[in-house]
Design goal:
Length: 376
C-alpha cells in the first residue's frame, strides 16, 4: 500500500505530468512570467466553467477577500458579519481594513453560517456578510441573499474550499459556489480542489463596474498605465501558476467526483457508529469534499487522532480553536463562552485523508482503523 497522505499531490502530478511539464515549459520558453497570455486564457476558461461574467485572477485567496472588501466603498467602523468557524483569512482582512468584525456561530450540522444567524446579528451599521462555504458545501445562499436584499447588504462569498460546488435554488436553477453573491473569492493553494503549484487566487462577479474596480485595485489602482484611479495593491497570478491551473481545470469535475466516491465509502462505513457523526448533506448544495470532516463525540477526538497517527494515517483538526479566543482577536471583546457551537465543533472535528487519488486499499485501511478504535 502506498503511503497515505492527507492530500496526495505527488500522485496527481504523476497522472498529469506530461501536460503539466509541457505547460510550465512553454512559459519558461516564453519568459512571460508576469501577465503572460496564460493568465488571460485561464481567466476566460474559468469564467466559462463558473458561468460568471468576470473572473479576476490575483495572488492568493486572502488577497481576493481583501480586494473584494476594498472594492465596495465601505467605511471604517462598518460592520461585517462572518462565521467564527473558519480559516483566519476570512476574518483577518476585515480587521486589517478597519471594519468592525461581527462573528456568529455556524450551523452545527453543515458547519456553515446560516441566514438566521446573520439576521440575529444585524444592526444599523451592518454593511456586508461573508459566508464561507466550508469543507466543500455551500452555505444557505438563497436565504442569505434574500436577507441582503432586504437590508441593502453586500455579500462576499468565500468559496476557497468549494470550487466546483453547485448551489440548487428553490426555483430549480443552479449556480456555482462563488457566483451568487456580489463578489466571490477563491484560493488556488496547492491542496485545494483546484490548486496550483504555489499561491494563487481569483474573484468572481457579474457586476461590470465591480469587475473594473477589482482589476484596478489589484493592479496598484491602475486602469491606464501609470495613471492611478484607485488606491490599490499589487496582487497578480503569475503565468506559470495560470498554466498549471489551465491543465488542472480540465480535470476538476472528475477529481471532485472521485472525492465524492471516497466520501461515500467513508459514509457507508461510519454511519450509525456510536461516537461518530458523519458530514451531513444540505438539500441546497452539492458537496465536493475539500475536507471529509467527522465529529467525534464523547471527548475521544484527540485519542482517535493519536491512534490513527500511530498507524501512519494522517488526520487533521480544522479548526482547533475559536477565532474569538485567539490572542490577536481578544480585542473584539467576546467572552469565552460566547460561541457554544463553535467551541463544541473545535473540540469534536477531525478530518480524514481526502483527495482524488485515494486508493481502495488505503480507504479500507483507514476505515478499518477508525472502526477498530471504536470497538476497543
Amino acid at each position: 500500500m502506498r503511503e497515505i497522505q492527507m492530500v496526495d499531490l505527488g500522485a496527481q502530478y504523476k497522472k498529469l505530468k506530461p501536460e503539466i511539464d509541457a505547460a510550465m515549459g512553454s512559459v519558461l520558453e516564453s519568459t512571460a512570467f508576469i501577465k503572460g497570455p496564460e493568465v488571460g486564457l485561464f481567466e476566460n476558461e474559468l469564467k466559462q466553467y463558473m458561468g460568471v461574467r468576470h473572473v479576476i485572477a490575483c495572488a492568493n485567496g486572502t488577497d481576493a477577500l481583501q480586494l473584494a472588501l476594498m472594492a465596495l466603498g465601505l467605511k471604517p467602523g462598518d460592520e461585517i458579519i462572518t462565521t467564527n468557524f473558519t480559516f483566519i483569512a476570512s476574518v483577518e482582512v476585515v480587521a486589517l481594513l478597519g471594519y468592525k468584525l461581527v462573528l456568529v456561530d455556524p450551523d452545527p450540522g453543515s458547519f456553515n453560517i446560516s441566514a438566521e444567524a446573520v439576521r440575529k446579528a444585524l444592526t444599523p451599521k451592518t454593511r456586508a456578510v461573508i459566508p464561507v462555504h466550508l469543507f466543500g458545501q455551500c452555505a444557505d445562499m438563497e436565504g442569505i441573499m434574500k436577507l441582503a436584499a432586504e437590508h441593502d447588504l453586500f455579500v462576499i462569498e468565500d468559496a476557497a474550499q468549494a470550487t466546483g460546488t453547485d448551489y440548487f435554488f428553490s426555483d430549480g436553477s443552479t449556480r456555482k459556489a462563488g457566483t451568487i453573491g456580489h463578489i466571490g473569492t477563491t484560493s488556488f493553494f496547492p491542496s485545494k480542489n483546484l490548486g496550483c503549484y504555489g499561491d494563487g487566487g481569483a474573484l468572481y462577479t457579474n457586476d461590470d463596474r465591480l469587475a473594473a474596480k477589482l482589476r484596478s485595485i489589484a493592479n496598484h489602482g491602475m486602469k491606464v498605465r501609470y495613471h492611478y484611479s484607485d488606491i490599490g495593491i499589487n496582487s497578480r497570478l503569475d503565468t506559470i501558476q495560470a498554466a498549471v491551473l489551465r491543465v488542472k481545470l480540465k480535470y476538476l469535475d472528475s477529481f471532485n467526483e472521485a472525492r465524492g466516491r471516497a466520501a461515500a465509502r467513508y459514509n457507508e462505513a461510519f454511519s450509525g457508529v456510536h461516537g461518530i457523526i458523519v458530514p451531513p448533506r444540505m438539500s441546497w448544495s452539492s458537496h465536493i469534499f475539500h475536507q471529509y470532516t467527522l465529529r467525534i463525540t464523547g471527548g475521544r477526538r484527540d485519542s482517535l487522532k493519536a491512534y490513527l497517527e500511530e498507524r501512519k494515517i494522517p488526520a487533521m483538526i480544522y479548526y482547533p480553536g475559536p477565532l474569538h479566543m485567539q490572542e490577536a482577536y481578544r480585542f473584539l471583546g467576546y467572552a469565552a463562552g460566547s460561541f457554544p457551537v463553535t467551541s463544541q465543533l473545535c473540540s469534536e472535528v477531525l478530518s480524514l485523508p481526502m483527495h482524488p487519488d485515494l486508493e481502495q486499499d488505503q480507504a479500507d485501511y483507514i476505515i478499518r482503523s477508525v472502526l477498530c478504535f471504536f470497538e476497543d
